[in-house]
Specification:
With about 325 residues, the chain is mostly beta strands. The chain is built from no helices and 21 strands. The strands form five sheets. Strands 1, 11, 13, 14, 16, 19 and 21 form a seven-stranded antiparallel β-sheet that branches. A five-stranded antiparallel β-sheet has the order 12-15-20-17-18, with no helix packed on it. The chain is globular, with a radius of gyration of 21 Å. The N terminus is likely disordered.
């Protein structure tokens, strides 16, 4: 199985992180809403089903362009509305002021850099650094949008194909202090996995890989969900050279206990789904709804396990629960 170096992003990296949709972060000079903002318009993040907005490759074009970006070229991409495969429930609305994207470069003919921005002059920064003969190079890019709903991509040297996948957008929201702010959704992302045993065939090199095929083996990560919440679903970003059987189990245990054991048998959520094969060097997304309710209780913590006996590369796992 080919080793992939596709995921080095906050959206898809495997690392210890807890991301809440109302996070206190900045975006191109915009202040994202946080609990200490009591009033006024501030951008908030709205997640969507990931969609491909742009792919400039001639063999698989998405959007209006099927040629690579040239040396010193600035290309303007329209985001508002139905564009590329961002349609239906993934349509970018006209009130979106910025996008959260995963950007990948392929087939660079020279050492170069790509810059993404909304309107005005090129800020002269680097968001992605492609080079010739390199594996597909990704990065997480938050780009502001112009008032017309567009953003720009600048390529400094040579030619390079660019893929832009959107996983959410930012829209202004008036945080009036007359009502209490509540998160719309909690997202547990970038879990810190470890092999279940020292003999496991899971290896880590930017992403977790299970290769070659071996007896059923698992990755395990610890995660603490807030007390009193119920899981809504999970999202797996993966690469599989052939249809792959796997399961994803969320277990609840008494804090400090070694084995998965909750207050009741219903406190295990298990996703057992086939994973379709993905195109070479591309990651797919499998979204799963819970099949057994898991409600968190005081004095208990949770674990997430991914188990398989087949070739499989894991970019990230996300767990979600409904609004509080």
């Amino acid at each position: 199985m080919t080793r992939l170096h596709l995921i080095r992003t906050r959206w898809a990296a495997v690392g210890a992180a807890l991301a809440i949709s109302l996070g206190a972060v900045g975006l191109g000079g915009l202040n994202i809403a946080s609990a200490d903002v009591s009033s006024g318009d501030r951008p908030v993040f709205i997640p969507i089903a990931p969609c491909r907005l742009l792919d400039t490759r001639a063999a698989s074009p998405v959007g209006p362009r099927a040629t690579p970006l040239g040396s010193g070229e600035t290309y303007t991409v329209t985001a508002h509305g139905d564009n590329g495969r961002c349609t239906g429930a993934s349509t970018i609305p006209v009130d979106a002021v910025a996008l959260a994207t995963n950007v990948t470069s392929v087939r660079a003919t020279a050492v170069t850099f790509l810059t993404f921005w909304g309107e005005g002059a090129n800020p002269g920064t680097s968001n992605l650094n492609p080079r010739p003969n390199a594996a597909p190079t990704p990065n997480s890019v938050n780009t502001p949008l112009s008032t017309a709903g567009t953003f720009n991509i600048y390529n400094d040297a040579g030619t390079v194909d660019v893929l832009v996948d959107v996983n959410g957008y930012y829209a202004l929201h008036d945080h009036d202090d007359r009502y209490e702010l509540k998160p719309t959704q909690l997202v547990i992302d970038g879990l810190a996995f470890r092999p279940q045993s020292s003999t496991s065939n899971w290896t880590f090199d930017d992403v977790w890989e299970h290769s070659p095929s071996a007896p059923f083996q698992c990755l395990v990560a610890d995660v603490d969900l807030p007390i009193g919440v119920t899981l809504e679903g999970a999202e797996l970003h993966y690469q599989a050279p052939a249809p792959t059987a796997f399961n994803l189990v969320v277990g609840q245990r008494a804090s400090g206990a070694e084995s998965n054991a909750g207050p009741a048998p219903s406190n295990l959520v298990q996703f057992v789904l086939p994973l379709p094969a993905t195109p070479p060097n591309e990651f797919g997304v499998q979204t799963m709804a819970v099949n057994t309710s898991l409600s968190t209780a005081p004095g208990y913590s949770q674990t997430v396990s991914i188990c398989t006996a087949q070739d499989l590369t894991i970019g990230s796992v996300r767990l979600t629960h409904p609004p509080a």
